[in-house]
Amino acid sequence: MPLPIEDYGIIGDLHTTAIVGTDGSIDWLCFPRFDSDACFARLLGNDDHGYWKISPNSRDHTLVSSRRRYRKNTLVLETEFETAEGTLRVTDCMPIRETHPQVVRLVEALSGEVNVRMDLCIRFGYGTSIPWVTNDGGLLTATAGPDALSLWTTVGTHGESMKTVSEFTLREGEQAPFTLTWYPSHLEAPIPMDPWYAIAHTDAWWTAWANECTYEGDHKDAVLRSLITLKALTYEPTGGIVAAATTSLPEALGGSRNWDYRYCWLRDATLTLEALMRGGYRQEATAWRNWLLRAAAGDVSKLQIMYGASGERRLDEWEVDWLAGYEGSAPVRIGNAAAGQYQLDVYGEVMSALYASSRMGEPTTRAVWDLERALISFIETGWNMADDGIWEVRGPRRDFTHSKVMAWVAVDRAIRTVEDSPELDAPVENWKRMRDDIHSQVCEKGFNSQKNAFTQYYGSEALDASILMMPMVGFLPATHPRVVSTVEAIERELMVNGFVLRYKTADDGVVDGLTGREGAFLACSFWMVDCLHMIGRVDDAHSMFDRLLSLRNDLGLLSEEYDPVAGRLVGNFPQAFSHVSLVNTACRLSGEAAFELPTSASHVAPARRGLGAALTARDRRERPRLGSSHRSSRHGAVGHLRKRLD
Fold first, then answer.
1. Omega of the bond leading into 363 within 30 degrees of 0 (cis)
2. Residues 246 and 334 sit within 8 Å (Cβ to Cβ)
3. 173, 232, 375, 455: least buried by Cβ within 10 Å?
């Protein structure tokens, strides 16, 4: 059976990742890419669906304790098992790929004498295909259809119950290596990499990468671990960053809100660019921006919210009915039908990302500008259309307030781009009028005077944590009375045990077309920290940030959500959006908000266009209700960005 989500860690080779449990079992692994079929799928099923476990033999030893860690600033994972007879260490890594993906595991007795058992249960096709296994000169190969795996080790193996097993004894100082390699079945098995070299090289590669981090603010260890996690979720050939390494880990245990997150979301682009740049990783930021340009190219009216790691557009969704789901959370979904939704906000996110990249020194070329103009041309009519919203709801389309705000962002960033580069041709005056129209409409229709807050969609009384982005994107100043009252309303109604829900779910599925509850969304909780800090409640912001950091598992990893009732991490894991938000919030609290945009009178609709009615006299008289306590400024400067050396 699978472990609690927080009991897993990851190793990866910048093409895919393996999910490794505290019990020494790899329970999820897709070869050769993040979104390929899994050959180990126990995470979403049971032992029959594939896993690879190495640990003290339970027949001979009673486990006293176990502990694990990443080698400092790397993705090399060490797990130690202490028994009464001795202590065993398993070192796991995936070497940075050169030709074929490999998983290297080195088993060592640190003290005493330990009997070890290895169980290798290969099941291609998400647990359905039992391979044909042969042993040729000590190299074991497992083949089924287009896929093959080879296992090299110095210890003997044998077949048992349709899996490969090894039992052996190690005394203090003795080691046993294992190297598992994937390759296309029509080719010969590749020569395995020397495991000792592979571990040393992987350690050195990640150490060198981590040493390029320029962030020197508070919580540096947490920030760097999050940046390493983002790098691990990067598909190196294209620069795309997948949202998570897994599919269908539930947003509520036993529920049906289970989605495939092994794809690249346009929505993540701006925040990810900021996180990478704040960490000093310009090369990764540029690769992500270039992936974004390629993915968005084409008919902008058909812009998708997500794409495959190489920019694939067809992400057909289907259900794996032979997998019971994580802790019975069915269905297990492969692919994501939300790719076909109309989500207005992604236009704002793309424009904001391109503007941010221009501010970090990437040129706005003619091709880039042509794309941006095409995006704004679509917004001219598209901004008035109802959409599916940021949360990919499967209910009716609505005029979601956040979507309209991000349409405003798209136009605003286009105008700012022209102001920064006057040589670019554009109907700027028309764009300014459009920006004003959107702003006026949001302030008039998106604000509920009875609730004293901006709401989820026009005419609604429901709150939505996505509105926390409003001051962060510069739509209104953080200290504007309406922003402050909205933050306070979300704090009252959407916070559970100190963490933020995206919105209130309902069993009737009126808003999102789904039933059941979900956990607190971690990215939204970080946004609340940002807003508390921006409106002057600095102590509250730091306190909440510390609580969020405490949710990370022992390896510093976060999933998508946290279930405050069960007290467990839920949702896909590890989640890029959570780690991006951690980095950006840490930078804000340390005094580093490099890409923050000021809100000025020139960027809000004038009173003659209706804003005077929308922003009432009471709004103009009222002063923001700021927290009474003020923490002394914390200084933590991100060093100057420097060019990376290959």
1. no
2. no
3. 173
